[in-house]
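The data layer described in this paper is built around a simple, fixed record for each protein. We quote a single record here, exactly as it is kept in our systems:
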Amino acid sequence: MERLLVQLGKAWSVFRRDGIVNGSRRIVSSIPTLFRRADSGDVLFIASGVGDSARYRCAHVAESLRLQGFRAGVIQQDTLRLSRFAEKFSVFVFHRTSWTSSVDAFIRQLESLKKTVIFDTDDLTFDVALFKQTAAYEAMNAFERKQYQNGIGAEFLKSSAISGVTTSTEFLAERLRVFGKPVFVVPNRLSCEDVTIAEAILETRKKDTEELRMRDVELRMRNKESDSVVSSSISHLPFPAPVTIGYFSGSTGHDRDFDTVSSVLKRLLDEFEYLRIFIGGPLSLPSVLEPYTTRIDHVSYVPRAENFRNIASVDINIAPLEVGDPFCEAKSELKFFEAGIVGVSTIATATQTFQEAIRDGEDGYIAVNEEDWYKKASQLISDGDFRRKMGERARETALRCYTTNSDPDGEYSLFLKARIPHS
């Protein structure tokens, strides 16, 4: 019953955030996952939901393992009769799964069969005291909060049935090691489908740029023949082309993150008349930016492919986070490589994870304070060639380090192989 109330709470949040039409589409599209088949194999992922967290931590990790030769499947926590999968796999990975009575019974069954059970988390939600102080928790309704009343993962981390833990960042790994279990950092990565979508977007952008260039050459030739002084392309206009800064929140609870750069954005909007802002996802606009609404575009939830197109349409991507907030420190670098895969440069707050991922000044920018944000954003706004080259290097980094085809996580692969009989 409690699990049902949580799901109803989530559904209500989706409707409130995305509206009846888009919300209904999201909910209906998630129903088939409850009946997803998982025949048999090596590793089975049990996802807590169907959002981006489950996508990156289950579907994409499973794809990475399959590319290494493992047989991996994904099901939902609410899948009917979990017990029927117990004999079919050797390793079971529970991603941010709530410890319900059905999960408890399933884990007892796995323990009796001497199966390997792993807990995966990409957040600090296992620390309930900390989580209840976050903006994300404040944004939840009463039903959603029920899911987090004891934290997500504390029971797993204390259970003798759990053989290991996987997580997305070294910051989180440090905090998980105190539970005395093996901890492996398995970074978030883009799927093969994501890379294909990005390549199609870049190919379209290349064709559009080439068509614009050809029109420019043609018009210039005509102007020259007619001894005209009429300018013919954006590069010859007496004012700069528009430059757009994009922020993609992805989920609720990011208002305070965005607000950390709101005064910097105001300063930039005042200085650069051709600057625009694009906001993707749920966000309440800070009052300091309300006078600039004619220069700010805001869209809510869109399908994944369209989200990549939206990211590709901006010139600069920003990833601000609250400095000193442990939940912000725990965030992965996905905002960097989601923009990088479509050749867009990123400025990010100097968290441990972003500092480890970004080569400051080469494939992205790290900002320590407001003045840092202003100087680095100003350079990217005013220097288009530098901005584009940084975006190209960001794409190289994304392809090299952040796809399911990237080098495998060696220690984790060895850990799994040791627990799969036929391997």
